[in-house]
Amino acid sequence: MFISKIKTQTAGPRILFAGLALCAVLFASDAKATTPPGSFADLAERLLPSVVNISTTQTIKNPQGGLEMPQFPPGSPLEEFFKEFLERQQGGGGGRPDAPARKATSLGSGFIIDPAGYIVTNNHVIADADEISIKLHDDSVFSATVVGRDPKVDLALLKIDPGKKPLVAVAFGNSDEARVGDWVLAIGNPFGFGGTVTAGIVSARARDINAGPYDDFIQTDAPINRGNSGGPMFNMKGDVIGINSAIISPSGGSIGIGFAIPASLAMPVLDDLRKHGKVRRGWLGVRIQSLDADMAENIGLADQHGALVAKVDPAGPGMKAGMKDGDVVLKFDGKDINEMRRLPRYVAGTPIGKKVDVLIWRDGKKLTIPVTVGELPEDPAEQLAKGGKTEQPKTAPGKDGVLVIPGSGMAVSQLTPQIRERFGIDDESKGVVVIEVKTDSPAAEKGLRPGDLIIEADHKPVRAPQDLAKQIDDARKAGAKSLLLRVENPQQLRYVALSLAEGKAKK
Questions:
Q1: Which of 8, 180, 244, 405 has the fewest other C-beta atoms within 10 Å?
Q2: Do 292 and 252 share a structural domain?
Q3: Three-state DSSP class for residue 485
Q4: Which among 299, 338, 363 has a CA at the least distance from the CA of 497?
Q5: Positive or negative CA dihedral for 14, 16, 20, 22?
Q6: Domain final position from 100, 130, 150
Q7: Whether residue 271 sits in one domain with residue 179
Q8: Does residue 336 belong to any structural domain of this protein?
Q9: How many CB atoms lie within 10 A of CB 297?
Q10: CATH number of domain containing 319
Q11: CB 261 within 8 A of CB 241
């Protein structure tokens, strides 16, 4: 009726044309958008045979027969009662020291990537397993062996011998092309039900959930539950773009926050496991930490991007190339280091032996250093530095050799035999030790705590409280708002930009 009415008007044809053109634009735009299918049935039917259920058996030694004496207050009548009960059980064999070990089972998911019998799952699904069983979509069961596993990324590659049985394999897709809002399909073995299909969207990219050093998860709201671990996440083409690995849940059930290892991270790991039985990662040989605003200002950087080098391994590729403690890595092999945690991922994924350019910030200017990437050792020395927790003061300032830093809420002391013994500092260590950190002070906010050893200030060695006092006064005279300290404790070596208050350091 609306169109008929427009036609009776003089300008009707033009208005009708414009309206039809607008509709054409809308339909064209809608055609380009990723829309939900009318049904996932065809896709699910094609993919289900490639997904497997995994069950594992682990032998748990139980020398006490599972019976332990509960703890009761001294003199409690229940203590005597339970003691007699356990003695009767042991006499009857219920709690014998030689009681047989018991079996523990767990369930997970996986998927076939090669008709020859190669299957992908999470490492935590098969960790410590004595036996691994694979159940296919048609209910046939096979025994599996572990080709290789990588706890850092939580992946494992399994192998079954299918004989003449044909297996349906799936291929990896390009997870880097997945966009927030794209539809995804998850298939797995939640709570042991097997062959369960759920759908959702990509909720977020590049999530770091502190599961490992190379976290780069795809977040999804597709329902994922216990037993889904190791199962595939598919895009609408039927390609695997992720391996479902973890959920956030207060109850253990799905609340719509699941995480999958992206295919781009998994593929090189699985390729190494298949070829070598282990993962060979690139290695730069540096310990790194994040930059905060004070640190960036102190060293003259306009922003907080980059990874601050807290320590260069003497035997690492970085040292051979000329990298130094205090350098800030801005780019690695052409990739911007917008976040500190990006650097370990980029380095790990770089082919061993490749020569790359590393753009660093040193002494107020940019410098490019060519580095030949090495192979990460089995037990790497590289660690990500993290701040410590605030602690209450343990020692009152004011004794000989104690330096109180006004405005910082911190006091340090020279290293005496008593101080070394108190904080467990060896005789070879040099510097001044933090003996007091006041709650809610600037020092506490930076993660400093009693027992930390300050070994450098403004890149100059600190051997006594006088050295630190001089660096503080010099920095204040120069108009600096903070002083860059190099701090060491048994867990880490890192840099801290300590805010400077007005006044002089006092001894």
A1: 8
A2: no
A3: strand
A4: 299
A5: positive
A6: 100
A7: yes
A8: yes
A9: 16
A10: 2.30.42.10
A11: no
Number of domains in the chain: 4
Residues 407 and 458 in one domain: yes
Give residue 396's pLDDT band: very low, low, confident or very high (50, 70, 90).
Answer: very low
Q: Could you give the percent of the chain with pLDDT greater than 90? A: 42
**pLDDT for 388 beyond 70:** no
468, two tokens: 């630190």
Confidence of residue 85 (pLDDT cuts 50, 70, 90): low
Q: Is residue 76 located within the same domain as residue 92? A: yes
CA distance 72 to 343: 53
CA distance 219 to 203: 5
- For residue 442, pLDDT beyond 50: yes
Query: What is the value of pTM for the model shown?
Result: 0.62
| Alpha-carbon gap, residue 347 to 283, rounded angstroms | 6
Just list the catalytic residues.
124, 154, 229
Question: Of the given ranges (199-203, 272-276, 288-292, 387-391), which has the lowest mean pLDDT?
Answer: 387-391
Q: What is the dihedral of CA 14, 20, 22, 23, to 10 degrees?
A: 170
Beta-carbon-side half-sphere exposure of residue 269 (alpha carbons within 13 Å)? 25
Both 266 and 347 in one domain: the answer is no
**86-123 tens-digit pLDDT:** 555 555 444 454 555 566 677 899 999 999 999 999 99
Q: Quote the pLDDT of residue 195.
A: 86
Domain span at residue 196? 175-276
* pLDDT beyond 70 at 81: no
Answer whether residue 486 is part of any domain.
yes
Smallest Cα–Cα separation from 408: which of 322, 477, 318, 506? Answer: 506
pLDDT tens-digit map of 312-338: 988 899 999 999 999 999 999 999 998
Cβ 220 vs Cβ 243: under 8 Å: no
Helix (H), strand (E) at residue 22: helix 12-32
Whether 248 and 290 map to the same domain: the answer is no
CA proximity to 483, closest of 436, 450, 446, 441? 446
Contact 133, 107 (CB under 8 A): no
**Are 264 and 298 found together in one domain?**
no
Phi, psi for 313 (deg, rounded to 5): -65, 125
